[in-house]
Every structure is written in C-alpha cells, then in structure tokens.
Amino acid sequence: MAATVAQKDVSTFLRSKQNVSDKELAEEWAELDTLYNKRLWHQLTLKLETFVKHPLLQKNDNLIQLYINFLSTFENKINPLSLVEIMAHVIQQFQDKQEAIKFLEKTESKVKSNNEAVALCKVLIGQILLDKLNNQELAKKIIEDVEVMLDNADGVTTVHGRFYLLASRLYRLQGKHAEYYRTALRYLGCIDLHSLDRQEQEQHAFFLGLAALLGEGVYNLGELLAHPVLESLKDTPNSWLVDLLQAFNAGDIVALERLKPQWSKVADLAAQELKLRQKISLLCLMEMTFKRQANNRQLTFTEISQETRLPLGEVELLVMKALAQGLVRGAIDQVAGTVHMTWVQPRVLDRSQIAGMVQRLDGWCKDVSSMEHLLESRASEILTL
Fold first, then answer.
1. By its UniProt entry, which PROSITE patterns does this protein fall under (predicted)?
2. Averaged over 265-271, what is the pLDDT?
3. What secondary structure letter does DSSP report for 216?
4. What one-character-per-residue DSSP string does 7-55 give?
5. The domain spanning residue 332 has which CATH number?
6. Is 243 in the same domain as 302?
7. What is the pTM for the complete model shown?
8. 340 & 362 share domain
9. How many domains does the chain have?
10. Could you list the residue range(s) of the whole structural domain that residue 359 is in?
11. For a designed S-S bond to 117, which of 67, 80, 219, 312 qualifies (C-beta 3.0 to 4.6 A apart)?
12. Pick from 87, 73, 80: which is nearest to 32 by CA?
C-alpha cells in the first residue's frame, strides 16, 4: 500500500488538504508539509501524535486517508511505539473490525523490533475482540500473551495501563471479582486519575467497591479505601458504598446491618448475602486479633461470638476457615473454648487502625521504660547476687 504512493503524490495530497475552510486546520496541514519536506521525522512524529486527535479529523475515513497517502511513506523512519500510538486513532475509523485487526497485525510485523510496540498492537487487537466482536476467548489469549511480555519489561511501561484496563474489562464481564479488583487497581496506579472524567471515576470506584466485597480472597480493603478514586462517590447516590467498605475493613457487623437498605438493592450483593456475612465475620476476627496486645491474643469463643454475632457453635468453624485461608495463625483449645492467636495477615491500615497501633506502641514504650527504671533502681541488688 505504501509503495504505490510517490513523493509527488504526497505533496499533492498535503497541498489539497490545505485548501480547507478551517484556517487552523489548514495551518496544521501546512506544518506537516514543511516538516515532511525537511525530513524532520522526530518533530513530524510529535506533530502527528497530536494531529490525529483533531476533532475535524474524527469523521469519515480522514485518518485512514492520512495513513495511506502520507504516514505510510515514512512509517519505517519513526519510533515504533509512536507509530502504534498513532495507529490506535486510525483504526477507530475502520467500519470492518476484522479489517482493523488485519491492519494491526501487519503493523505488528513492522514494529517487531520493539517489544512495547508489539505489546501495544496486541492490546489494541484485544480491545477490538472484546469491545466490538465480543470474542472473550481470543481476548483472553491476547491478555495471556501480553502479560508474559510485560512481566519481562523493565519497570512500568506506557502499555501497562492499557493492558490492565483491557484485562479488567474481561474479568468484569466474566464475573471474576478478585481478578478484576487487582487489575483495575493496577490500571488506576498506572494513570493520572485526573485524565478520567467524573463519570468514569465514579464507574471505576463503584465496580471496584463491588469487586472488593465480592472477590474471593480479597481482604485487604485498605488499599482501595486509601485510593482517591473513592472521592468521586461522595455526594452521589452510591456514597453508601464507601461506608460499606469501611464497615467491612473494620469488621463492623452493626454497620453492615445499618446499611442493608442500600446494599440489598444491588442485585449482585443481595444474591451473595451469605458470602458477604462470612467475609465480614472473618474480617471481624482479624480486627479482634489485630487490636489485641501481642502478649494478650487469647480470644474466647464467647468473645468471638459476641463480636461476630455468630452462634457459639459456629465460632470454631469460623476460626478454622481463617486459619485455612492464612488470615491468622494460632491454635484452638476446644476444651477451654479459646483461641491463641500468634499472627494476623498484614493489611493496608486506615487512620483509626493506625491510631490504635500507635496507642499500643506507646503502651509498649511505657512498659520498656518502666522495666528500664526498675533495672536501674535494682542494679546493685542484681550485681550482688
């Protein structure tokens, strides 16, 4: 396709494009003409990366014609990753999405020397497969291939954000809450949150909140609670979700009951009420263990029953589940009806949890200081023994 476009044809194309009524756009085309004639490929690349976003070029097949009559003549002279970034806009104008995939596959072969560019090509193909063709199976294969490529990359690349967004969309469609939670958080960690509009932020916050509650094995809710994306839910009809997340993080079963009129209206949460109650009971047990001093982590079955609001006969099973999932470590004394905890799984703490830890640390410091003074006052007695 590129080989059929001669130098004079490029000049003719660029001059014809300068005869548009919009003066600003005409000047943009003239600048492209100048940079091309001077063979300033780097500057031309930078210009094209912004030019393809021009509102007047988003109609019909303007960007496809830009590629055929202009970009294709020097695509081997510009940065491979930048080329694919530009192609990401061009493919939006392909009516036939299978043709768009073929176009990207050809582009992939042209940029095979650059792993990031190849990975981005694959991600763009994955987006078409998932969003336009609803082919989850092939999209999953793409995600698996790209994940291996990015695992071998040095640090976080510009492709990581797009990859995590694609993967999170697939997991959400498949109802894989835990996988969605982890990849969606990673996506937000790769981007500037302000690049998303308010509605997009609210959507991410809402879906993340549901995934945190429903996700199997997701107990570290503090990571999400500390994320600024939840600010987007304030003063909205879904602001209760933040309160519910805080209730789960604290193992607050009273708050769960108080918020039931709100969360029970969400079909996914209402359908999983039993699992939600099991999860908050486990978090309650973790919080009870965390709040205790290291030298006083013996919990009675009665105390656990009162905090979790579970029948006394179900307490031992709850503790066994917590031990089996690696949330806590300890030993059960069935005869005495007690549990001696030795460890609780580390989590991202909220401010109240940190404040409690500070108080315990202060208490420990006072105990150490008292022991120090005791040793000083009785040093002579100890030395004469």
1. PCI
2. 98
3. T
4. HHHHHHHHHHHT--S-HHHHHHHHHHHHHHHTT-HHHHHHHHHHHTT-G
5. 1.10.10.10
6. yes
7. 0.86
8. no
9. 2
10. 345-375
11. 80
12. 73
